[in-house]
Write a structure and sequence with these properties.
By secondary structure, the chain is of the alpha/beta class. Helix 8 crosses helix 9. It is globular, with a radius of gyration of 18 Å. The N and C termini lie far apart (40 Å).
């Protein structure tokens, strides 16, 4: 059964991921993200963000704890849960011998959705329409990142996991991404955004959780985090560093 509007689309309960006895990547982390919400998942490199997202996708098996996507237990129903997720990885690897359009056709096939006018419109929106039949191997870094974003948006997933989506994007592309994420949230999707661009995070995220060495160091709205840090007027980078280091 799908989550009702306003209920948690992404739920993490006491998640632990231990790679061996001396290396715990995620340690007793709990969080919930509702439909209609853009949620920031922050932390320094190695804080556990990407591990948490990979656990949500079923790519990494947690040591203990529970994850749910749109009411589905990720451990028990991994394929069905994954169909409801759009994922942009930090380390984006695309098929360079495919054209942009062929790659999106492949993604549509995997997600069992039509590669139709909605996909074509996304190519137009992100400025890739005229280059859609060129090989991805000929794309710039920004074009590759936008192609990955398009793949994550395919099928209007209930949960969007965006791991460092801004790398390689110019200011106009960042604005278009912001507007697209806000539109998807307005349609009821839950968006989890991991980024080091703190100005973007503060602007688009209603709530933020900051991880430090695998545990939750702080959680709240950007305004609440500023108050907790005692930094009401500083750049949000300083607020982040106050909790993350």
């Amino acid at each position: 059964m799908s989550a009702a509007p306003g209920e948690a689309v992404f739920h993490v309960e006491r998640l632990v991921k231990r790679y061996h006895e001396e290396a715990t990547a995620v340690n007793d982390v709990s969080l919930s993200v509702a439909g209609g919400e853009i949620f920031g998942l922050l932390g320094a490199n190695g804080a556990g963000k990407s591990t948490l997202l990979k656990c949500a996708l079923g790519l990494v098996r947690p040591t203990s704890g529970r994850l749910q996507v749109d009411g589905l237990d990720v451990q028990r129903e991994p394929l069905e849960a994954r169909r409801r997720i759009g994922y942009l990885p930090e380390e984006l690897r695309l098929y360079e011998r495919l054209t942009g359009w062929e790659f999106l056709e492949l993604v549509c096939g995997l997600k069992q959705v039509e590669c139709d006018g909605a996909v074509e419109e996304e190519f137009r929106y992100f400025g890739l329409y005229e280059r859609r039949h060129e090989l991805i191997g000929e794309y710039s870094l920004g074009m590759r990142k936008k192609t990955g974003i398009l793949a994550a948006l395919v099928g209007r997933p209930k949960l969007l996991l965006m791991d460092e989506p801004l790398n390689g994007l110019d200011a106009e592309s960042m604005r278009r991404l912001r507007l697209r994420l806000e539109a998807r949230a307005a349609d009821g999707a839950a968006v989890v955004l991991s980024s080091h661009v703190m100005g973007f995070v503060e602007r688009v995220c209603g709530r933020v959780t900051i991880l430090k060495k695998g545990v939750v160091a702080a959680s709240g709205t950007p305004v609440e985090l500023r108050a907790q840090a005692g930094l009401p007027d500083e750049a949000f980078d300083d607020v982040f560093l106050h909790f993350a280091l």
